Amino acid sequence: MDPILEGLNSRQREAVTATEGRIRVVAGAGTGKTKTLTHRYAYIVNVLGIDPADILCLTFTNKAAAEMRSRIAGLVHSGDYNDFVCTIHGFCVKFLRKEIYRLGFPKGFTVLDEEDAKALAKQAMDEMGIKRTEKTVRQFLDAVAAEKALNGYIQTYMLPESKVTDGMRRTSRLANYVSRQMKGYTLDFDDLINFTKYILDRFPDACAAWQDALDYIMVDEAQDCNLDDWDLVERLSARHHNLFVVGDPDQAIYQWRGARPDLFVQFAADKTIVLDENYRSTPKILDIANSVIIHNRNRIPKDLFTRKAEGRAVIHFHGKSGKEEMDWIVAQVRLLLGGGAVPGEIAVLYRSGFQSRAVEQAFLDARLPYTIWGGTRFFERREIKDALSYLRLVSNQDDDLAFARILNVPSRKLGRKFLDTLQADAEGVSLYTALQLHDGYGKPAARAFIDLIEDGKQYVREHRISDLLDRLLDRSGLKQSIREDQDEARLENLDELLASIRSYEAARPDDEATLADYLQDIALYTNDDHRKDTPVLKLMTIHQAKGLEFPYVFVIGLSEGIFPNMRTIREYKKNGEEEERRLMYVAVTRAEKALFLTESEGYNVSTKTNKYPSRFLAEIGPELMVAEGVIPEELWRGTRNLVHVLDEEFDPHRPVALDEVDFAEERVEYASPFHIGDPVTHAVFGPGTIRSANHDGTTFEVVFESGAVRSIRAAFLTPADFP
Hints:
The chain is of the alpha/beta class and 723 residues long. It contains 29 helices and 22 strands.
């Protein structure tokens, strides 16, 4: 046997030696995808004798490309690989260095990074008189990217004969931005692939030359390719038809970024090879993964298997509260560490960033070292520090750090120059006191800021900390500014902070839950005293865990609405549900030796209702897990009810009057607070009358006195006679 084929299983060998034609490899998690790709490259070079310059091997990240180059270097003779083992954008840069002269650009064109793009956007916005904030700059760049996606812009704005008039610059974001790019012959990331495709389209000789040169094209993680990526590789492979695509639709978790896993599923292949022998996980873990993903439709069927020993049982823990869930996780981590595991072998995975807060506090209390992998610790996130700074200033008006942080957050047009003036005048007094002494320098916004803090000082004397923060977030405009940014993750973080404060209050007598006490206690969590040079537990979102593996994995917060994510399902319907299920599959298949699945009862920050177990837990046969803690049947009914409600949204139908509702046994027992014809009030829409309800009686169609008709959840309505 050729040395290149040694150590490969039969399916991997089949993929490596299938060199001609359109080959699709469906590579399950942990099945040796990268090994197969790199050995195929070496086989083509060492056995077929193909010049490495004629092979294009594409992947999605620079890290993955570097790993491939490193492995290939160990399989072929020195120098027998080339720069065409790269990312798609990396290939486009190499292509344009040779071909962009055709468009009148110099070979030494500049590629803009994100900060460069923001700088150009700010210049364009200033000229066009557009308000410039972090939010509006991002929106400006998103709008430019959307217009570029429509194509045609290269010929209109970026060729030597293109004419961009002053009128176009004043009225068109794209024209203004691109004209600034042209001054320095700069391209952003969108331009790289668009220019490459433009040249291939417009210059047949260039297209033919590249098609001739690239005998073999290989694409890694093909399920993550978007339409432009697919169009490019199909065009480049049109001459020799040797296109080798590797991917796994079951691990496609980037549809929200434009990925098209359906194109991988529909790929017209001469041969499809399924890699289903897993080298990472135990059989018990793979049984969990297979039992969940089988419920998806947009996939290529496969069942992962392994020759490893059975290993530990998968444990599902149900807690009566979030604290009980965290305490159990801490106890299990300590057992693992006591059994010889090192912290770096343990990962805690969650669906959304706000979920890290509870784990972080539990680990800090337990003195367990951790790091947020690829992210920011909860209490270091900008919106959390802003919110806590409002509380700090209410508690202590001498806190200049808190004052300086929030004086202009959200924007009150009290910027750096205003603060410099204030600091110069604050001799022997705090900045806040100086602002009061100068009556806000006559600025209405500064006076309003003083009124806000003074109101908070009075309010907290008779109200809880959580109520104070809710009031400050509302009256300061901080929450509204984040809502306008459409940044759901930051809103969820604020909701989680409020929920954590309510838990803090509930666990203490009123006289021990003062604002000063809370701020002193929370400072223990905001103090970044962890050592970054020691092995630590890893906390991360499931998206950040893609491509990683750990001996011991906890997947936490498995509550309906959190995971699967309610917002994703509402926005993308069945496609969203399938993407969430793929996320669950990715999370489970990160585990090598042991897997722990956890959830708990209590309040759901995402749905603003009680917590119910995730549908994904219901899809796993009970015989596949060891259960710790009993889930009451009414909670499972709650899960079925929520799934039913969302299924109704997938296939909308007329509202059903309450007297028509037949509450089936499997639905939650529900005592409706409203009846047809009941008068109600809403905080925004005002008074109205109940007209109908959905099947489960949790959402009501209301006719308001203004004439508006809205479907409103029960929690947002009150009886009209409510005191």
